[in-house]
Amino acid sequence: MRVFLGLLVLVMALAGCAQAPAATTTGGNAPAAAPTAPAAATGPLVMAWYPNESGADLKDARDAFGTLISDTLGRPVEHRTTTDYIIAIESVANNNAHLAWFGAEGYVQANERNSSVIPLVIPSGSNGSVESAVYYSWLAVPRGEEDQYRDGDGFSIENIQGKRFSFVSNSSTSGFRVPSSNIVTYFGEKPEWQNLETEDLLEGGPNNFFADVQFGGSHQGSAVNLITDRVDVAAFCDSCVDNYVSLVEGTENQVGAVYRVNDDADEPFNQFPGAEFVLIAAVPVLNAPFVANSSMLTAEEIQKLQAVLTSDEVANNDKIFATQAVIDAGFRPFFRKTDAERFLVVPDSFFDPIRAMR
């Protein structure tokens, strides 16, 4: 578990450093540095979405963001839903989309392809700060199979070698980059795996690290791979399955926690009510940024978006940060309001820990 604790220290250390640039802005709402952009346009603004956020159950959540952006910039918004991470990333990097919501790995990949892709805002942690702006990368196993991963009073990833394994996408932060980096670091200390590399985790077989490797295409898809016994262990994140599962034993986002699929879960979980899984690893990950293509938006437009998104009005908008009452009424959100959640501006360097894993 020292790998996981090390990552947490790194996340918190960087978060503390990231506050300084934000604090020098007026109200924390000034735009990130951006290349010179063209004059403001009035045509449709395209927003790309990962497969995780492209489902029909999240249409109202997408529309809530579309309305907010449209009202701010006076331009209609077109939602570009996708079935593949790369499609979403390339649409922004290739100047075919103005905005997107990516994981840190997706942002880093898009920024490498096109330096005009910049972070717009990230959601804060529950206390409204950048220090707590993390979600969790899980490794989960079916309930009833967890004993083979026990290590004393806790759990270990020691026995995942040789198992059937599911990632999300090799462009996913919490569904690939973080878990693969931790696996390589952990097993690389063992003589028989000292030359293990991330690429060795992409395919399964008799001579490979895993017996079989599958990619779910989304966090929901990776979780379904586990629930349907296609794999023994799966990587996916807490926030992407939050609308479909509930904690039934243990502590949220802690090793040993047991989650169960809700009886009224939407697709693709609607066929598996009551299915349960156990966490054998839970690692904090830097919160996912909304990103902007600064060659397609003016500096003024970016500044307007950041000012509105970081406002108290948006922090209290129950279709952006949904209250429990709104959720109970049937709304499926991207973000939940548990305390003081809001959006924050961070610099590009905030995502350097993800770059360091690559």
Protein architecture, described:
The protein has 358 residues and is α/β, with parallel strands linked by helices. The chain folds into 2 domains: 2-131 and 287-356, D-Maltodextrin-Binding Protein, domain 2 (3-Layer(aba) Sandwich), CATH 3.40.190.10; 136-286, 3-Layer(aba) Sandwich (D-Maltodextrin-Binding Protein, domain 2), CATH 3.40.190. It has 11 helices and 17 strands. It has a 7-stranded mixed sheet with strand order 9-8-10-5-13-12-11. Strands 2-1-3-14-4-17 form a 6-stranded mixed sheet, sandwiched between helices. It has a two-stranded antiparallel ribbon with strand order 6-7. Helix 10 (324-328) links the parallel strand 15 and strand 16. It is globular and about 55 Å long.
